[in-house]
Write a structure and sequence with these properties.
This is DUF3307 domain-containing protein. InterPro entries: Phage_phiKZ_Orf197 (IPR021737). Keywords: Membrane, Transmembrane, Transmembrane helix. It comes from Oscillochloris trichoides DG-6. Helix content is 77%, strand content 0%. The mean pLDDT is 88. The two termini are 17 Å apart. The chain is mainly alpha-helical and 224 residues long. It folds into 2 domains: 117 residues; 105 residues.
Amino acid sequence: MLYLFFLAHLVADFMLQPLWLIQRKRYWYGLLIHVGFVMVCMLAIIPFEPRAAALWPVMLGISVVHYGADHWKIAYGDRMVRSPLLAFLLDQVIHATTIIVGLSLVLPVEQIWSLDASALALPAIYAICYLLACFAAPITLIVAFDPTFKHASLAAAARVRSLIAAVLVLSLALFATPVALPATVAGIAAATRRPASGHPLDSPLGLMVVVLVAATLGAVLTLV
């Protein structure tokens, strides 16, 4: 069950959190919209895994803590943690820990962690890896290298390019392993010669980090 909840978190916190929503989270209504997405994504598990319907109190608790963690990050994070990246990572640790603790309070350990607990556990893990490579890694890089959104006008196109690179590398690692390494090296060499824009995601370092994350996740998935 953990993998389904973590997948729901990634969808809500990365796929469904565009720049306009991030900016409006400084106000109560923007934060409420975001937490509403978090709750809806967890409720969306129920049609695919009906047993999750009994976990609605856990979903509600996770949403409340999510609201509190995001409010803390926005209101006090800069004062308590100077690094925006550190505040961002701490926020994600809180969200992940909340999910684990919440499920641990109501489910046996084997139903939380075991791949046999749900037929959707393995597909969820694959989806999680794609979301980590295509959305979480690029957004983390933006927080690290462009926390004030100085290059916001270039971000949309840069994120599309990083998404395509991550999908290609991860898919090659999974389904065409023999050609994954040479294709990846060739792609990095071509891209670093002439960056597509001045956005940090298009820089050689940004591209290499995205590719490295995708390749690592692909290698891990081949062992699952």
